[in-house]
Amino acid sequence: MGIVKLRKNFHQAKWDEPIIFELSTPGERGILVPQVEKEIEEVVGDGLSDLPPHMIRKEPPKLPEISQNRVLRHYLRLSQETLGADINIDIGQGTCTMKYSPKINEVLVRSPKVTELHPLQDESTIQGALEIMYKLDLLLRKLSGFDRFTFQPGGGSQAIFTMASIIYKYHKVHGNDHKDEIITTLLSHPSDAAAPKVKGFKVIDIPPDPETGYPDLEASKEAVSRRTAGLIICNPEDTEIFNPYVKEMTEIVHEVGGLCAYDIANANGIMGIVRPVDLGFDMSFYNLHKTFSSPHGCGGPGVGALGVKKELEPFLPVPVVEYDEKNKRYYLKYDLPHTIGKVREFYGVFPAVVRAYAWMMSLGEEGIKEVARVAILNNNYVMTRILKKVKGASISFPKTKYRVSQVRYTFEKLAEDTGVRVEDIIRRMADFGFHLWTSHHPWIVPEPFTIEPTESYSKDDLDEYIEGLKTAAQEAYENPEIVRNAPHQSTIHKIADLSMLEDPEKWVPTWRVYLRKYGKK
Amino acid sequence: MEKKKVGLIVNPIAGMGGRVGLKGTDGWDIVEKAIKLGAKPWSPERAKRVFKKLLTIKDEIELLTYQGEMGERVAVECSFEPKVIGKPASARTTAEDTKRAAREMVKQGVDLIIFVGGDGTARDIYDSIGLDAVVVGVPAGVKMYSGVFASSPEAAGELAVRYLKGEIKDMIEQEVLDIDEEKFRQGVFSVRLYGYLRIPFDKRYIVGGKSTTSINEKLNQEAIATDVIEDMEDNCYYIIGPGTTTKTILKKLNLDYSLLGVDIIYNGELVGKDLNEKQILEIIDGKKAKIIVSPIGGQGYVFGRGNHQISPAVIRKVGGKPNIIIVATQQKIISLRGRPLLVDTNDRTLDKELSGWYRVIVGYKERLMYRVEPG
Amino acid sequence: MVIKKDGKIIVHPYIPNSVPEVQEEMLKVIGVSSIEELIDKVIPKELQFKGELGLPEPLLSEYELKRHVMKILSKNKTCEECLCFLGGGTWPHYVPAICDEIASRAEFLTAYAGETYEDHGRWQALFEYQSFMAELLDMDVVSVPIYSWGHAAGTSIRMASRITGKNEALIVDTISPERRRIIENYVEPHVKIKWIKHDPETGMMDLEDLKSKIPSNTAAVYFENPSYLGFIETQGKEISEIAHDKGALVVVGVDPISLGVLELPSHYGADIVCGDLQPLGIHMNFGGGLAGFVATRDDPKFVKEIPYRIFGLAKTIVEGEYGFGDLAFERTSFMVRETPTESKEFVGTAAALWGIVAGVYLALMGPKGMWEIGKTIMQRSKYAMKRLSEIEGVMVPRFKAPHFKEFVVDFNATNMTVKEINARLLDYGIIGGIDLSRDFPELGNSALYCVTEIHTKEDIDRLHDALEEIISGRRKR
After folding, report:
1. How far apart are CA A219 and CA C163, in angstroms?
2. Which CATH number covers residue B117?
């Protein structure tokens, strides 16, 4: 047990690093390109003579010219100015599941046996890759109860889109033209509503019951009709209040011939405790870059691993990985009779698959169950302490006392008492070396913040974070200006002019636009 | 930052009736009654709380106000040096004084008008300047049905400061409601929609983060209107209730409309504008009809605040719940904080029949299941 | 507690709070007696799964885990061990050491969605990536990386539909078969696709067919340059004129590594440009290195239709100091309803790290590097085409047009299928080009070969010699 101390003297790296274009020195070279051998030059000349003149680039691109170690230095400094999960107690990015990404997995994916593989190589040369994909498929089948997984979707939202595409194709094949509605809940991820619309569906949101916080069953019953094509929901939703009537919901939708899709991007608290197939779902997806430890990479790449019941296999995007028992070889199967086609070229982000596989193999059955159990323990511990120690904080839907693996809190009281708002607290937390995140839209919980401890942080870590939150809240009451004008110990100060991000005349999407609109700095 | 001009209008008699159980202080006879009952002026104190917030930008604003109790006294007491641009006609301030002050402020090019009062004051501001200026309402009245008021004097001050500092760029039009005096005299409690005022809209900007979407009210209304129009049936009368969200439907069809009244569309054409109950019943007699309404005011009344023309008789004739379409922007729904939508048609049985779950249209091809209950 | 079968309690390195004493303490604070009790409070008992999932025993030591996984992976034969000529959507290019270095920096690898304060470096790195691409493409606005080229193309077409208010897209039939399937799924049901024929001689778009198929309801004309089949579409200007004349937008998909030498789509009329970043310093990763992008000019009409994040510069409260933020956030996942195309699609975790790496690559290469690499690729692929054409029975390039990096090799006169040839090539330690016979039946037994800066003269000669032997051997029979 260590000492829990808030790092009052923390200061984020601040290099005042200019935009890289300003480092440019004409003539400097970062890397040299291999020139062709003399013999080739003799045969083909400069290689450009075949090109009609109008197809040759006239002006070179105005990229900066910087020597190699200067480029390295620049990016290393930017990297220092980034608070990755490896370097902080990252429980404040709720719904992101910022757990530990084991470094052994990085060693594995940096092997040329992963990096130097082309997906279209002859199958005999990629048996190792196909085997890992197939084996992860098997592991996830056991975890979820589904019959087949694909790793093609490049993230959770793309997986939701894939599920919506499957629902669309399923009804098209069955001649159900009248089925044009998808039901979701207001507190499910915004993509659960956005993605179905891309396939032309009308979306019906079920709101949470204001007392309990989980979707109102009566409302669900009223929402379902013969026009219901399917259900796409999270459970638990962002508030991590498990809906005890989820099975009733899937039953109602099945009764009218709809399909039930389960968004378990936030599966960390239910693995091994609940099996998606038992809740009545026909398909679901896991985020390999959240629950299964593949690192977030600043926003990707990732994988939304989609699992389906046998009946829906024919609709999966192609190809799927199959195993030929007789000849003991893995192969790619393309002939799925009702495939939706593809959502991504080739088979998915293979490194994420390798990491997820390694992670699951390291933990095994007991370990994975322990992950969920400790995620729940950590979360309720943090919640108990926040409610006791952090002034002005409370939980959304207080009637439901406990949560699964994350909590949506509210600083409503703090805002009322002090005028300080959650955005200010977030910026102040940066002064202690922490992230804090609010909520997806819509903000039906006012002044929201969402904390997801996961299983990766120790009790001391959690206590340190809570100390930070407690301090920021206290300052809101005793010294609000320091919170409102935060951050003071971060890389930059508070953003001032929001019109630079909203007004088309003023906005700056790239450096060249900046130079044009504002002249040289 | 060049100095911003801020107009301040205090209605000194607002709120005096509240403490002593009177319904509003719209006239001096009521005020005198109130004073006899021991009432003291309330709004000046409320105004002072706003000034506490304004102090942070004292040197960046030029304050314009009327003499004495209409703003000057309070401003001076809070260490401001206001420019006095006029005075009330007599010691007993009236609605006319409020209106004159507002008009003068607009003439002088104010960036913002802060008014302290209740629905009556809001009504006066609307009558005199409509949407010609951006205003912030400081709640100090008894009747506070309008959506133009901030939740507290501090919140009003915050909103004003952020707007003046340029941190808020968007505006939203909020309803001005007030008790229908005519009906009230006849012993009927009826809240009427008077108009709209422009309020700064705090969009709650977070720089970055995972959250997608903030809410643009106008785009939301257009999305809703497009959805409604797409689903409109032929040979069916559509009774459109008052409000900016519902009227966007008529705007989109390039039809004339009455913002505060009830209009009827049939096969894409306007067949009646600003109709009363009798006219509505005549038009839809024996025909297929639907009602399109949106919640009005801060409490989420779908019937009973501002659309009394859609009477129980009309609602019954249309066929009740199955033929009622409710539209609402996300902003409106969020402001309800989970409370149900309410109906108060004056017919308790009908209110019960209308209660239940509705598919509220909140966007293009987007519905939200929402409960309606008797209010 | 993790209990092994023989009763021992294991504390897993990934789960600090699996120490039993710590758990006891925490349970006390919460006020429950066990984690099971807590679980029962949050998840109804009747919905809980009680039993064995059937997952394997854990490989508890890191050493065992590494051996286990490497054993499987070692069954792969890589493009370093074999000589690989595959392209078709992901290509073997050289990845500079600095790119690998930055891609493996723990901070960048594990950051996610922090603000411009505590994650400032990430925002700046991505803004710089956007800026590099803007210079490479000569277009003002570039989005943060999205899943892949295919997805970006689908989005670009939907954008065009929203902007023009029309719902048909004309696409040339030589685009990548993978991207074709993605686009088809992505635009249905809102946009109808009409396929435009290509000229069998040059491979390029058949302009007459385009003119005949472009009624006034076309939202977009989409083609790829260089084409999936390797030839360069030189009629960009004409295509744009025809499209713009009918009120349609021009969407072009590009391979950015060609843009050091090839003329830019934005110069011959493209309104929206998309493509993939993989050639810019990202390993192939068995197809996991893809990262798409969408670029437009700085016109609010276009920018507000881009459904993905765009990082913009913003001033802070300190004079001269800059931070970043999301540009016009409302664009994402919200809708403006003037158009038949329904929604602004969806946004989520996509491929940001690859954007940063592509930025590093472009910073290292600079303008001279991009010119050099374009030139050397053209020289090498031209040399390869020349050498292979010396083999009797082989027609290369199939299309009479200039090529970049990839080209179609026609084996029809050899009486061998591409499948057979590729099987034989493996014996020589060579991975042959993509078999096009299924997706492009009109080309018969043809393969798509890819030659980049990594292929030396020796490599190309080796390919020639192997093919020569394989084909002549068969021919002699």
Report:
1. 37
2. 3.40.50.10330
CB contact under 8 A, A440 and B212: yes
**ipTM score for this prediction:** 0.96
Can you tell me which residue has the tokens 């249209």? B361
Which pLDDT does position B210 carry in this prediction?
Answer: 40
Is the domain A365-484 a CATH 3.30.300.20 member?
no
Q: How far is CA B328 from CA A45, A220, A411, B325, B363, in A?
A: 69, 20, 27, 10, 8
Query: B234 — alpha (psi -120 to 50), left (phi > 0) or beta?
Result: beta
Taking the mean position of all CA atoms in its chain, how far away is CA A189?
Answer: 11
The architecture of the domain spanning A108-360 is 3-Layer(aba) Sandwich (3.40)
Task: Identify all chain B residues contacting A208, using CB atoms and an 8 Å cutoff.
Answer: 338
**What is the tally of helices (H) and strands (E) in chain C?**
14, 16
Do B207 and C314 count as a contact with CB atoms less than 8 A apart?
yes
Residues B180 and B223 in one domain: no
Q: Where are the domains of chain C?
A: 2-71, 83-89+368-476, 97-361
Determine which helix (DSSP H) or strand (DSSP E) holds C420, and give its type and residue range: helix C418-427
In tens, the pLDDT along A174-217 reads 999 999 999 999 999 989 998 999 999 999 999 999 889 999 99
- Name the pLDDT band for C288 (thresholds 50, 70, 90): very high
> How far is the alpha carbon of A428 from chain B, nearest alpha carbon, in Å?
14
Q: Identify all chain C residues contacting A51, using CB atoms and an 8 Å cutoff.
A: 232, 261-262, 378, 402
Let me know: does C90 contact A92? Beta carbons within 8 Å: no
Paired tokens of A400: 């439901």
Q: Which residue has the tokens 């329904």?
A: C342
Asked if residue A319 lies in contact with residue A120, where contact means CB atoms within 8 angstroms, the answer is no
CA angle A349, A351, A353 (to 5 degrees): 75
Fold of C83-89+368-476: Aspartate Aminotransferase, domain 1 (3.90.1150)
Residue B185 sits in the same domain as residue B249 = no
A416: closest CA of chain C, how far (Å): 25
d(CA B196, CA B178): 12
Contact C376, C412 (CB under 8 A): no
- Contact, A302 vs A292, CB < 8 A? no
Q: Which of B201, B234, B257 is the last residue of a domain?
A: B201
What percent of chain B lies above the pLDDT cut of 90?
52
Fold entry, domain C97-361: Aspartate Aminotransferase; domain 2 (3.40.640)
Helices (H), chain B: 16-19, 28-36, 43-54, 72-77, 95-107, 119-129, 153-164, 181-185, 217-231, 244-252, 277-284, 312-318, 330-335, 348-354
Q: What is the pLDDT of residue C5?
A: 56
Mean pLDDT across B257-279: 93
Eight-class DSSP state of C15:
-
Phi-psi region of B254 (alpha: psi -120 to 50; beta: other; left: phi over 0): left
Return the sign of the alpha-carbon dihedral for residues C43, C49, C54, C58.
positive
Q: Tell me how far apart the alpha carbons of residues C379 and B348 are, in angstroms, rounded to a whole number.
A: 86
* Parallel/antiparallel/unpaired status of strands C168-172 and C83-84: unpaired
Coil, helix or strand at residue A438: coil
- Structure tokens of C198? 């290509």
Cβ neighbours around C21 below 10 Å, total: 8
CA distances from A56 to A47, A97, C265 (A): 12, 48, 11
Q: For C113-128, how does the pLDDT look when each residue is reduced to its tens digit (9 = 90+)?
A: 888 999 999 999 999 9
Count contacts between A and C (CB, < 8 Å): 717
A77-86, A330-339, B89-98, C405-414: which range is least confident on average?
B89-98
- Between positions 264 and 323 of C, the ones with CB within 8 A of B are 314, 323
What's the rounded Cα separation, in Å, for the pair A159 and A296?
Answer: 16
What phi and psi values does residue A273 have, to the nearest 5 degrees?
-95, -35
